[in-house]
Amino acid sequence: MRIDILSLFPKIIKSSLEHSIIKKALDKNLVTIKYHNIRDYSKNKYKKVDDYQYGGGSGMVLMIQPICDCIKELKKERKYCKIIYLTPDGKKLDQGTSNKCSLLENILLICGHYKGIDQRIREHFVTDEISIGDYVISGGELAASVFCDSVIRLVPGVLGDESSALTDSFQDNRLSEPIYTRPENYKGLLVPKILISGNTKEIERWREKKSLERTKKYRPDLL
Ligand code: ADE
């Protein structure tokens, strides 16, 4: 998989994807990420990338020219399965979308900043708009990091123990069950007996029950 990311602040994204599982995926070349600074494509002599919005109103808008030129340049090299704009107006990211995206070959992500990007880019280039939740953050960079992390860990070959992605929260519309590790007794705080019983059938039943209880309590909308 290859992900191209257009941003004014690529370092924010890069630094968040240089650790742990995602770093291993990049090191193994299972995924390649290329960062493109929108400012590098500005034709303005001061490298300006934003301007006031037509019709008035506060906040700056990222101009069409640098983003448009960058996308056109990239599209000469490869065909993108999806061109995604990260925005709070988009469809909320969920595990199903991440699963589907993990099987795609080329994805292009556009990160807005300030008020966002010129609508014409959204209308003429963007195929999907994704939000990471009903709140506004300073730009699409952290949203792009969240998207990349959730997708990359699902790319075949990335997780050592393949089954561990299958038991993640949301994979079957359930939250995951409580988990424990050694020691069995920490200053009187005990691990549930069933988990050390060795009875795999009973353990499985217990896990399902706990997962259901948690889902009913915190996310009844999933059921
Ligand atoms: N940019 C600003 N807020 C965002 C959000 N919630 N999701 C995606 N991109 C964003």
Features:
alpha/beta, 8 helices, binds adenine, five-stranded parallel β-sheet, 223 residues, single chain, 35% helix
Give a quick summary of the entry.
Helix content is about 35%, strand content about 20%.
- Radius of gyration, CA atoms, in whole angstroms: 21 Å
Uncertain stretches: none
- DSSP E strands, number: 10
User: What is the count of DSSP helices, taking H or I runs of 4+ residues?
Assistant: 8
What small molecules does this complex bind?
Answer: adenine
What's the average pLDDT? 96
Class based on secondary structure composition and strand pairing: alpha/beta
Residues in β-strands, percent: 15-25%
Q: Helix proportion of residues, in percent?
A: 25-40%
End-to-end distance, in Å? 33 Å
Give the biggest sheet: 5 strands, parallel
Q: Which word captures the global form?
A: elongated
Strand order of the largest sheet: 2-1-6-5-8
Elements, N to C (H/E):
EHHEEEHEHEEHEHHEEH
